[in-house]
Inverse folding.
């Protein structure tokens, strides 16, 4: 291409016209300004940097003792009930000692302790393997309170998290969950899920933000203690100091935050 | 260049067909466009006078606001919205928006149908926060 004085002047002129268009573009297609609105934690919200739970299993002798807690949880969060076990959705459920703690294999253990129902749920691990497996960051460890949260808007239903979770705490919606719910008994304040996403316990993060304790803790009449693991003066830390506790599969290094007094 | 007239003729026919929807609506059927929908405000929404933000903002930007709400509520746990006047609201579609606008069919759906958008909010969020059916 031949460069000349004439050509240079032409290009400079075009560039000047282009620059002068900027205010026009700003006026016509201005980016929306958000004013001064903001989002913050509510005035009643409970604040903790790592929520944790201590379950006193001595207080749960039979299945009748744990059933109200499971019901409270599942009612609060519109967890569907499907009788076909392949479609089962579980947030909080009970299991046998040897399924809850497969690494504790002592023979001749206390029969009473062996046959208690053990409440199990998502452990909200400090080092959660499900979070590493999730390709869309739909499940993530929330920095503000340590809860392993599911963002249902992002879940693509790949189920890598279910394969990664060593506790089986996650369930997949093979069917439309609304088919497993009775419409009149639904909690209208909480959404349901849709077919094709994974779900699990959320430590009642929506209740914590309103200053309420998790539904199972509230229904447990003191048998479950909930609080901030990082606060040395919290109720959980006091209970952990005073009682010998175990955690599920602690040898895996996931650092679960649900403790059991046996 | 012997085919010039055919090329030009072809271009004219193509442009005519391509712009068919435009001139058909302008010349043949003027004034028959579907009228813009009227949204219905419930008594509660009328009494409140203003939504969480000014009406003009809500008309144009409610989707961005809701997107921000869901992002901040789920991912950062900041679920309380403070508007420029300093009033606080729970950042919740079912519990705040639909508390006033409890007539989803006449409020949300009318405009969404008109502009042919299908937000998937209702796949999960319940549209009857008070449990009325």
């Amino acid at each position: 291409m031949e460069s000349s004085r004439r050509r240079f002047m032409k290009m400079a002129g075009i560039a000047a016209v282009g620059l002068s268009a900027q205010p026009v573009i700003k006026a016509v297609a201005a980016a929306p300004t958000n004013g001064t609105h903001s989002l913050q934690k509510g005035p009643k919200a409970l604040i903790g940097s790592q929520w944790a739970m201590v379950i006193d299993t001595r207080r749960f002798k039979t299945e009748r003792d744990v059933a109200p807690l499971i019901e409270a949880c599942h009612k609060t969060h519109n967890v569907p009930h499907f009788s076909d076990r392949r479609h089962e959705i579980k947030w909080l459920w009970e299991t046998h000692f040897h399924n809850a703690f497969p690494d504790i294999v002592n023979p001749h253990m206390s029969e009473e302790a062996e046959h208690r129902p053990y409440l199990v749920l998502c452990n909200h691990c400090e080092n959660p393997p499900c979070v590493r497996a999730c390709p869309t960051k739909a499940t993530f460890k929330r920095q503000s309170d340590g809860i392993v949260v599911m963002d249902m808007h992002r879940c693509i239903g790949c189920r890598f998290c279910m394969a990664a979770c060593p506790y089986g705490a996650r369930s997949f919606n093979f069917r439309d969950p609304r088919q497993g719910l009775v419409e009149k008994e639904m909690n209208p304040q909480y959404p349901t899920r849709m077919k094709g996403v994974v779900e699990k316990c959320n430590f009642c993060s929506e209740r914590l933000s309103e200053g309420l304790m998790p539904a199972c803790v509230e229904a447990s009449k003191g048998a479950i203690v909930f609080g901030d693991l990082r606060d040395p003066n919290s109720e959980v830390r006091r209970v952990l100091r005073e009682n010998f506790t175990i955690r599920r599969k602690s040898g895996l290094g996931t650092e679960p935050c649900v403790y059991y007094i046996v | 260049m012997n085919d010039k007239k055919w090329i030009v003729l072809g271009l004219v026919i193509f442009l005519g067909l391509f712009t068919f929807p435009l001139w058909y609506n302008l010349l043949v059927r003027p004034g028959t466009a579907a009228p813009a929908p009227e949204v219905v405000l419930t008594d509660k929404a009328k009494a409140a006078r203003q939504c969480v933000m000014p009406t003009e903002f809500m008309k144009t930007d409610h989707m961005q606001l809701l997107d921000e709400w869901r992002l901040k509520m789920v991912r950062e746990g900041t679920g309380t919205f403070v508007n420029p006047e300093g009033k606080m609201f729970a950042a919740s579609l079912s519990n705040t928006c639909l508390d006033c606008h409890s007539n989803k069919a006449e409020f949300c759906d009318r405009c969404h149908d008109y502009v042919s958008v299908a937000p998937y909010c209702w796949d999960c969020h319940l549209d009857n926060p008070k449990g009325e059916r």
Observations:
- Chain A has one domain: 51-261.
- The first helix of chain A runs from residue 5 to 20.
- Chain A touches chain B at residues 32, 35-43, 45, 140, 142, 144-145, 147, 149, 151-153, 183-184, 186, 188-189, 191-194, 205-206, 209 (CB under 8 Å).
